[in-house]
Design goal:
The structure is a homodimer of 153-residue chains. Chain A is of the alpha+beta class. Chain A has a domain of 70 residues: Winged helix-like DNA-binding domain superfamily/Winged helix DNA-binding domain (Arc Repressor Mutant, subunit A), CATH 1.10.10. In chain A, the strands form 3 sheets. In chain A, strands 4-3-5 form a 3-stranded mixed sheet, covered by helices on one side. Chain A has a two-stranded antiparallel sheet with strand order 1-2. In chain A, helix 1 packs across helix 2. Chains A and B meet through helix 4, strand 5 and strand 7 of A and helix 4, strand 5 and strand 7 of B. The structure holds a DNA duplex (30 and 30 nucleotides).
Chain lengths: 153, 153
DNA sequence: ATAAAAGTGAAAATAATTCTTATTTTGTGT
DNA sequence: ACACAAAATAAGAATTATTTTCACTTTTAT
């Protein structure tokens, strides 16, 4: 892998945040100081960095996200805003060890674990959000519906 | 939720296979016997079925996949062909219990676990496949490269 | 200087959602 | 059973978002 100023800028940008940005978000970050940067370059380099083990890809609902933090940790995805935050917890070593022991039994080589819940920001937000809930129609039937929810009254 | 022949056909199709198809694949299955079916309808109904808890969504690399099997089980994603297969294993109850106990500690409401490895079909395949590996250039540098791999000779 | 690696920008491919209009489903009252 | 109205749903086209590909140019390491 030859060096390139683009790849270095991408890696630096990714390491400067804790937000696990998408390719597009990384593009926006680096594009400020590198206006000729192309989005295809961002995608290509992120793939290379993932293959080289310097960056972790986080797949799930929506776009792929990226993590430049090499320290072992877990992730929590917010079910409201979709953001991904880090979980550093001693408790999870046991979990990882248990999984590690299971892998050969299941003829697997890896396992990804992702927690989910509402992030602190969304829970504290003044602005309400929508969530699919079951509601009873006037006539007594049950529908699923996007209902406005807000943790502040 | 009112009944609709489309939704019933979608659910029936999904329950008839063990392959965890994408919305597009389900569309293709149902479209044979229901030519006027639209892809948007498939997406909408799958979302409804997921919200109603009758179907599980499997997110990860690539398109969202769907699972009509209500019995508790885990998934293994093939790192070669991307297919998702079921894992039914007693061993995993311990894992699930451990995770269940961790959730309140981590302020989370759920956790998704996905195993990965090479599926039986790909391991047994005569046809070789490509995988990104590190290779040494003639001049001594190390590059990542898509290399042909085959488990048969 | 040269060859491999990497970048650019546009286009294509994939994936998923939105919008408007038309149709279907279902509870209620004949 | 039958008609009605309201709610739910579907169709089909269009749009948006995401990711990859391609032909060419530039950069990097020897």
């Amino acid at each position: 892998m030859n060096r390139s100023s683009q790849r270095e800028a991408i890696l630096k940008a990714l390491r400067s945040v804790k937000s696990h940005p998408t390719a597009d978000e990384i593009y926006a970050m680096v594009h400020d100081s590198m206006p000729r940067l192309s989005l295809a370059t961002v995608y290509r380099n992120l793939e290379q960095l993932v293959n080289a083990g310097m960056v972790t890809a986080i797949d799930g609902a929506g776009s792929r996200r990226f993590d430049g933090n090499a320290a072992p940790h877990h992730h929590k995805r917010c079910s409201v805003c979709g953001s991904v935050s880090d979980i550093f917890s001693e408790e999870l070593h046991h979990l990882d060890n248990a999984i590690e022991r299971l892998l050969p039994l299941l003829e697997c080589s890896a396992c990804s674990v992702e927690f989910s819940g509402i992030c602190g920001k969304c829970r504290a937000a003044e602005t309400p959000f929508y969530e699919t809930v079951s509601v009873r129609t006037e006539r007594g039937r049950v529908n699923t519906k996007n209902e406005e929810i807000c943790y502040h009254e």
